[in-house]
Amino acid sequence: MKHNGTMHSQAIYRLARNGILLALAAAFSFLESLLPFPGGIRIGLSGLITMYALLHLRFSEALGITVLKSALAALTRGMTAGLLSFSGSMLSLLGMLLLWRLGSSLLLMSSLGGWLHNLGQLLCASILLQSDALFWYFPVLTAAGICSGVLTACLFHTLLPKLRLAAHFQQRASSTERRINS
Amino acid sequence: MKNAQKPMVFFKGTDVVILAILLLCSVLAGWLPLRSKGTQAVIAMGGITLAVVDLEQEQPALQIAGAEGFVFCVADGAISVTEAPCEAKICCKSHRIDAAGQSIVCLPCQLTVLVTEAHTDSIPLPDAVIG
Ligand SMILES: [Zn+2]
Fold first, then answer.
1. Strands ordered across the beta sheet of B71-75
2. In this structure, what CATH number is given to the domain that contains residue A36?
3. Which of A133, B43, B57, B79 lies at 20 to 30 Å from A149 by C-alpha?
């Protein structure tokens, strides 16, 4: 049986952490907008956040951040951008979850995640256009998705352990927990 | 359900093979059809064809009924979008296209310009060409 105080501090910790992650994802989305592809398709730099959420948080939290990130895109850049963002990041998230469960390496999971992100957007754009006219961008989007996925994996692999951000936050939360419990 | 943090290797040898095959397949699928030069451009909105433009006929400022606000330029067997009613104007920044299979797209307006090869045996559609 958990103490009430513990539940409370955990909830606040999760809320704050997920809020920071969502803000980071929004910042990455802005950076992506500096590299426009035809039809408003974007490379998935914010995949870094999706991957962190998938690997280190509950799946429901990763799903929540993904959905809210797309809602943010819809609010700031319009419904079409929101739909593109949603289909891309959703396909990417589910694909990466599957690859992770299948025992894929971090690099493969991330690069296929990047590819799926672009594939999802291409499919969504094609449905919106009722046309396969965008298909000739497929090789560019594949290359861009893989590149962004490899970049994401390298950043994830090298930066995260050095920053010890997750560990630090985790420690803080659990020490608060202990204090409240004792 | 909390995702278990099982150890995950960074890289496997097979990764390169899988990614290389994926890249190769996408390049073959996407770019092999582009090798022939197109002779006409199909301009459509929301999947409905508005006009079939002959790329051999030079038209510096082509406007098409149903695609209000758009201005196309047909020159040297290639077509480009020079003016568009959308906000981002990504379609106007697209390069001129001349190979069969290439396209210029305006997602906010649902407009597609797709270069195709005219089928020599098919009946020409003069009434679809406006401009
Ligand atoms: Zn446009």
1. B59-62, B71-75, B78-83
2. 1.10.1760.20
3. A133
